[in-house]
Write a structure and sequence with these properties.
Layout: E1 6-10, H1 14-26, E2 30-34, H2 37-47, E3 51-54, H3 63-73, E4 80-85, H4 90-99, E5 103-106, H5 111-126
Parallel strand pairs: 1-2, 1-3, 3-4, 4-5
Helix pairs in contact: 2-3, 3-4
Amino acid sequence: MPTPCRVLVIEDHVDCANSTAMLLKAFGYAVHVARDGIAGLEAIRTFDPDIVLLDIGLPRMDGGGLATTIRRAHPGVRPYLIAHSGYGMAADREQSQAAGIDLHLLKPVEPLELQATLADCTRRIQMPQTA
């Protein structure tokens, strides 16, 4: 049986962060929460997440800047980055992709959709690499 993935939630809205973390824990994920972009960078180093669920509108460093920094600092080591944001226009999604974000979800995400999305990410992460 695969080991549970570690999910880092980077969200400045306390209620959203706490409810998302509770939901992910109920789904069986190991979860850590960071409240801003700088704390998120530190959590990347200490928590070593498989998946990062990040808000775009964060204090101290926005989600796009955070994603760009993660990708530059960890080439080849790619935590799966998922934007979880209220910004959902086509330009917002393009900016997410340009920053290295793998997937862009618009808030609020239905719990079952989030569960299915994370399960798909988990399968991709834990799939054995073939030569």
